[in-house]
Amino acid sequence: MAITLGEDFLTVAEAANLVHVSQSTIWRWINSKELPAYRLGPRRIRVKVSDLAPLLRPARPEKEELVADRRDTLTANEREQLSAAIMEANRFRATLLARRDGKPFEPAWQAIDRTRDERSLDRA
């Protein structure tokens, strides 16, 4: 890898100040190889300004990117299997509701509270 001396190099502290993160974050990026670092002599570590730019990206992808990502993650066969599994789950839910005369299950938080109250009474 050829390094030109005309490029701007920063200390870890300067790089941290530039992108408003802590020095430990810069070191973590260096150690995880997300941020290339260069040794100058036996002890000095420097970071190129141009290497910091790829670390800055939008926090949330655009809506179109999300939709495209979802489409690309499943093959046609996997989408069919998923659709069949959802239909089977809906049939199972209908069967359970029919067995319970249409009465749905209580929400989980209510079941947890009821169980907690029963345990409290048993201990008393």
| Low-pLDDT windows of residues | none
Total domain modules: 2
Termini separation comes to 73 Å
Instruction: Give a count of the beta strands, DSSP E runs of length 2 or more.
Output: 3
- Beta content comes to 5-15%
Secondary-structure class: mainly alpha
- Total number of helices: 6
Largest sheet: 3 strands, antiparallel
Mean pLDDT: 85
Q: Determine the fraction of residues in helical runs and give it as a percent range.
A: 55-70%
SSE pattern, N- to C-terminal: EHHEEHHHH
Strand order of the largest sheet: 1-3-2
Shape: elongated
How does this structure look, described?
The chain is mainly α. It folds into two domains: 9-55; 66-123, no CATH class. Helix content is 58%, strand content 8%. It contains six helices and three strands; from the N terminus they run E-H-H-E-E-H-H-H-H. The chain has helices at 12-19, 23-31, 49-52, 63-73, 76-99, 108-123, and strands at 9-10, 38-40, 44-48. It has a three-stranded antiparallel β-sheet with strand order 1-3-2. A hairpin with a 3-residue loop joins strand 2 and strand 3 (44-48). The chain is elongated, with a radius of gyration of 28 Å. The model has no long low-confidence stretch (mean pLDDT 85).
Secondary-structure map with pairings?
Elements: E1 9-10, H1 12-19, H2 23-31, E2 38-40, E3 44-48, H3 49-52, H4 63-73, H5 76-99, H6 108-123
Antiparallel strand pairs: 1-3, 2-3
